[in-house]
Amino acid sequence: MFKLAPSLLSADFSDLKNEIKKAEEGGADLFHLDIMDGHFVPNLTFGPMIVKAIRKLTSLPLDSHLMISNPDQYIDEFRNAGSDIITVHYEACQHLHRTIMKIKQTGAKAGVAINPATPVYAVEEIIDYVDLLLIMSVNPGFGGQKFIETSLRKVVQAKKIITERNLNVEIEVDGGIDINNVELLLEAGADIIVAGSSVFKSNDVTETVKKFKKKFLEYEFKNKTKFA
Predict the structure, then answer these.
(1) Which cofactor does it need (predicted)?
(2) Is 196 among the annotated ligand-binding positions?
């Protein structure tokens, strides 16, 4: 039920094929790709060319998180590069409904992300149209940041809206998540956990992914009546 999306931003890009393989062996469900333009966020990462290269290294879904200005200009490029999910920021889109529809027209799943300072109610009018809501639990731009505790409240609020409307929308949480706080997010209502530094900066990538997956199973078992 719960999914782990290791963030390749924290991986060793000089040994990317092996890093991906180790995460897959641990049971990763998909890979999270942090696309940054140095404008919307104060960092620069990679573009469609690298996504295309990553696509050749794994058959798992690629979750491309566009932390960029004017994302509409690049949706087709990221889809053609192999992105299965394309997530844009509420804060970066002037006509968010149009952008979401454009993503869906490519055949990709569409997600919308909100920064820590953006309230959940800001996306109430678009949530019926998306496949994924990404709640940032750090300020976007850099890996390895500390988890912002108030993000838990936002996950609870989002879950309430999704449940009340009977929507098929997954809640993804990204930023500062490790094996010690992940259960709090599961309890709050998260469906997809993004983990970067805690996975790829660990001593054993495969075993760390397995630990996350074990946490998921243990939580499901403890709350089996909830998921019945």
Answers:
(1) Co(2+); Mn(2+); Fe(2+); a divalent metal cation
(2) yes
Q: What CATH number is given to the structural domain containing 142?
A: 3.20.20.70
User: Is there a binding annotation on residue 65?
Assistant: yes
Is 39 assigned to a binding site?
no
Q: What is the pTM of this model?
A: 0.95
Domain limits for position 174? 3-227
Tokens 């959940």 sit at which residue? Answer: 120
- pLDDT single digits (tens) 44-86: 899 999 999 999 999 999 999 999 999 999 999 999 999 999 9
Residues 209, 213: Cα–Cα separation, whole Å: 6
- Would you name the residues annotated as active-site residues? 34, 174
Ligand-binding annotation for 69, yes or no, is: no
